Amino acid sequence: MLKRTLAVCVAAASMAAATAQAANVEVLHWWTSGGEAKSVAYLKEKLAEANVGWEDFAVAGGGGESAMTVLKSRAASGNPPTAAQIKGPSIQEWGDLGFLADIDSVAKANNWDALLPGVVSDVMKFDGKYVAAPVNVHRVNWLWANPAVFEKAGATIPTTWDDFIVQAKKIQDAGFIALAHGGQAWQDATVFEAVVLGVGGPEYYQKAFVELDADALNSATTEEVFRVFGELRQFVDSNAAGRDWNIATSMVINGEAAMQIMGDWAKGEFTVAGKTPGVDYACVAAPGTSGAFTFNVDSFAFFSQGDADAQVAQQEMAKQILGEDFQKVFNLNKGSIPARLGMARDEFDSCAHASMDAFVASAETGGLVPSFAHGMAVSEAVSGAIYDTATNFFNSDQSAADAKSQLIASIQSAM
Amino acid sequence: MSVSKASKPLTLETLLPKIVLAPTTVAMLVCMYGFMLWTGALSFTKSRMLPQWEFVGWDQYARLFSNPRWDVALNNLLIFGVLFIAISLLIGLVLAIFLDQKIRGEGAIRTIYLYPMAVSFVVTGTAWKWILNPGLGLEKLMIDLGFENFEFRWLVEPDMAIYTIVIAAVWQSSGFVMAMFLAGLRGVDDSLIKAAQIDGASPFRAYWHVILPILRPVFFSAIVILSHIAIKSFDLVQALTGGGPGYSSDLPANFMYTFAFNRAQMGLGGASAMVMLMGVLAILVPYLYSELRGQRNGQ
Amino acid sequence: MASKTQFSAGRALIYAFLLIMALLYLTPLYVMIATSFKDIEEIRSGNLLALPQDPTLYAWIKAWSSACTGSECEGLAPFFMNSVKIVVPAVLLSTIIGALNGYVLAKWRFRGSEVLFGMLLFGCFIPFQVVLLPMARLLAELGLANTVTGLVLVHVVYGLAFTTLFFRNFYVSVPTELVKAAQLDGAGFFAIFRHIFLPVSLPIFVVTIIWQFTQIWNDFLFGVVYSGPGTQPITVALNNLVNTSVGGKEYNVDMAAAVIAALPTLLVYIFAGKYFVRGLTAGAVKG
What we know:
- By secondary structure, chain A is α/β, with parallel strands linked by helices.
- Chain A is 53% helix and 13% strand.
- By secondary structure, chain C is an all-alpha fold.
- In chain C, helix 4 (77-107) runs parallel beside helix 7 and helix 12 (234-242) packs antiparallel against helix 13 (251-284).
């Protein structure tokens, strides 16, 4: 095994060396801001060391919308890039259309099955073979709180949704904004997801929003979920519409607001502002979700290349992504935890540790669920339908019963 | 009037005009009508992420019309289209008439009205998003100035968000309409207005009864160009409201793009595009026909 | 226009209205420029219309040379030339072809030419999102996928409707007698174009070039879909710069970048604006 690995590596290295700047990888992504860009640049450097060039193909905008459009037209015209930032069920959809490259050789050579938790490696495989490499694991069901605001308002950080409503009223009465929020569809969906998980529990979440079971969707629980979600409308300030998520985070940072429900990338904002976890801010599980972990895994999927040199370059990129160095650097920058198991924890902060612990624990209890608000659980069409229903409900005075009907109808229509 | 068609031997000379138009015709047939047909065909398939030619009849159209978001988008297009075109025409015309009154500094003022056209919709949307933001822009400014009860929250109100798009779009395009009308007015003989006035008409009536009818071709061109901008409005919505709050300011072009490219529902996106095109067809073709015919016969 | 006694009041009102409108039109540009000279603290705490208290060029320098647009952090500078390489050929080609088309449709009508014109006008209403995929296929078939040539071709094709419209409307007003006289003298199709139409066409060329330049320079959709790494136009870079999903938004850098991206077209309208109106006056859209 080792000998074969060695042989493969030597062959690859000599091929790369022999053809000088052998092949380039053309990588489509939307990580264009300072911190993310640095992480991507780090990957570029590591690839340069292996003599693989990097053609950057960045298209920013809303979590990849424009990038996906470009990718589709490139695929439709027969020349997809080497790798693209694709995650979740979309990987399966692209695999179905026959576009993805098999990188199983790299996976086997580097023992990915042992390095990745089952939930994650399943997503990365199509037809049992690896076609994508995971970059990180985000936990989405976090509540970020400013303890100072709570103290001033005489409130405590809530652990259930009923308690949330009580505490939020206290905070509001004390003159603060209870829930910092940005009125964009995906943010509405993120909060909605936390309510689903907190009110219905992981089993309900799995049945209704991952398996799309009709009975689960058409239940009293769903209506209760909407009722609670609707209660949150009053705790969001009136300027929330269109606000970016990081502006909402800054409201918590500077004490205007008490809480934000957002994934762990919010931690980056606190870090940049020089705040310490546990002291200036608290990271707790979103109300009612303390044993559960909603995961969002960013990954690069690889597209079939005809050229042998290109394939070698591609494999090198896959290998580097799951390498310890990149996993560490990227996740420290981004606020997520490495996808790769068994890495040293000392450089990560307390929130990251909590995340890592929860990740392992929830996998055992069945509380580890994919995020539907972030494209991990259902197809794009269905998650779009859920978005539309959630955001419309949140921004209007639609009743919970009507919202439930609209949800069921639109999911049906999207399937 | 075109040149004599009396004798028509099949010489190079008579073929030349057709040859010249040929590349454009081919491009038009392929890249416009060919693609429209392609989209039409797509709307009858079950295409999801990429085109898949499995036909499912009117299924996508049924889905389209049972989608509440589509209703909102269509409704918005009507509101936006009518208001945008009407207000741009009105402001453009009024500005042009005023500027035609031998104003000092006309060149500078005209440039000020015209420059918004130079700016891309993305930039326009971003700038106006700031200005109309209650917490950062106009409302805050007025409150700071002392008008404590001033409210301008259209941007964040689902019922009113579409009107903010009208405002930004009018700002961008009315200057061009003004330039068109100004050009048209300059071509009108002064003596006509003087004659009307000698007859005792007030300036307003002189304009209404004499000048405006002469400007009819300009109205035509302006309406064509403005409708074109209205229907294509996509970047502006994305940048200014993102279709929000919720999806209350969505327009068909945004709907189509979102569903085709981000929701992996190409078939549905195709259906929405066809409905948009049919709508445009129904309104514009009669208009184009009557105007072009009128021009050939009358002018 | 008004009678002598109302001269001052009427004209004063007209001036007032025009000036107020001018201020309204200028506000967004003022906001953008003012913001680009402020530092971040001032933006967060101050108000939109305030003048910068301590103007700084930080945002401008960063936007031009060091802002991140992906894994590259070299600002907008590298993309500027890309846009130029796309815009110049596209504008020239679509204008020339439009001129010839307009000439034919105005003076060399044949059976069906008006229908063709109508079809061309209607065809320009197709929403561009619709053509993205089939056009990608077509470009791939032609071997032009992800090349500058391909993108130029796309812009030319979709610009033809307007350029033809402008030239046709303009040439309609050239007296047909001139053409007939030239024909009697034995001049052919192209000769008439060169000697009679071209010399008077300056205003309409200006209008068309300005219009096309603006449309193509500001285009984002075609630019993002049909370009490849290394050939992306400045609008794509601007979008990457502004639409960052994490990290503090540097509004001043965003605004500076937006103004930089808009500068060529703005300058065109400021300096050539009067030729634009003159061209319109000469008949670009009179009908």
